[in-house]
């Protein structure tokens, strides 16, 4: 798969999130609200459910827009700035739209010693994207990640929640092609 257009900047921009009023009960779906309240119920405070609430909404919408962030903050009775701090600290919360598959390529030391450079190059060439970018068809976003815990089987990457290790140029291409076909075949 080849494409030249890309749509996501690598660095997370510091978006000025205001505390503009959003009726969070109108904005968040009942499924989202129920799941958030479930998380709140097992925390000591509403504020402590910040990460889990972000994950709930991301699971439903794919990413966390400014409006989603404001609605979640209001639901948790905290400021948007406070929740933005949580969202930007946690690298699996996406504050920009991402592709159907998000590739987290490990760029820590063991992977660097065992072929990271080649794997990165293969992904970049095969998908025609760089770090922080999304293929024009919206299938893949490429991000870097710190150690994924598979150092003894490096190089490693995670795509959505699936871990891949002992990567070679051939296996990476096979993985990407396989995932691409899954999307194309989806109804
Ligand atoms: S350094 Fe890459 S998985 Fe640990």
List keywords for this structure.
alpha+beta; binds FE2/S2 (inorganic) cluster; 8 helices; Glutaredoxin; 187 residues; Arc Repressor Mutant, subunit A; 10% strand; 2 domains
Structure description:
- With 187 residues, this protein is α+β, with helices and mostly antiparallel strands.
- The protein folds into two domains: 97 residues, Arc Repressor Mutant, subunit A; 85 residues, Glutaredoxin, CATH 3.40.30.10.
- 44% of the residues lie in helices and 10% in strands.
- The chain is built from eight helices and four strands; from the N terminus they run αααααβααβββα.
- The protein has a four-stranded mixed sheet with strand order 2-1-3-4, with helices on one face.
- α2 packs antiparallel against α3.
- The longest helix has 17 residues.
- The N terminus is likely disordered.
CATH homologous superfamily descriptor of the largest domain: NADH-quinone oxidoreductase subunit E
Q: How many discrete structural domains?
A: 2
Range of strand content: 5-15%
Report the C-alpha radius of gyration, rounded.
18 Å
Oligomerization state:
single chain
Q: What is the helix tally?
A: 8
Query: What is the CATH C level class of the largest domain, in words?
Result: Mainly Alpha
Structural class: alpha+beta
State the strand order across the main sheet: 2-1-3-4
Distance between the termini: 20 Å
Helix content: 40-55%
CATH topology of the largest domain: Arc Repressor Mutant, subunit A
Poorly predicted tracts of residues: 1-15
Mean pLDDT: 90
**Bound ligand species:** FE2/S2 (inorganic) cluster
Counted beta strands:
4
Main β-sheet description: 4 strands, mixed
Q: Architecture of the largest domain in CATH?
A: Orthogonal Bundle
């Amino acid at each position: 798969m080849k494409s030249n257009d890309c749509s996501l900047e690598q660095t997370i921009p510091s978006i000025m999130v205001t505390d503009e009023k959003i009726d969070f009960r109108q904005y968040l779906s009942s499924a989202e609200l129920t799941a958030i309240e479930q998380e709140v119920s097992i925390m000591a405070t509403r504020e402590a459910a910040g990460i889990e609430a972000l994950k709930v909404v991301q699971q439903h919408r794919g990413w966390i827009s400014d409006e989603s962030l404001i609605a979640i903050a209001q639901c948790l009775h905290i400021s948007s700035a406070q929740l933005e701090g949580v969202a930007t600290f946690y690298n699996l919360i996406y504050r920009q739209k991402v592709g159907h598959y998000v590739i987290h390529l490990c760029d820590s030391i063991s992977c660097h010693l065992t072929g990271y450079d080649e794997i990165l190059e293969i992904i970049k060439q095969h998908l025609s994207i760089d770090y922080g970018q999304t293929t024009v068809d919206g299938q893949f976003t490429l991000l870097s990640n710190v150690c994924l815990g598979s150092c003894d089987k490096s190089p490693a990457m995670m795509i959505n929640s699936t871990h891949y290790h002992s990567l070679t140029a051939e296996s990476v291409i096979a993985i990407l092609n396989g995932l691409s076909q899954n999307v194309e075949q989806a109804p």
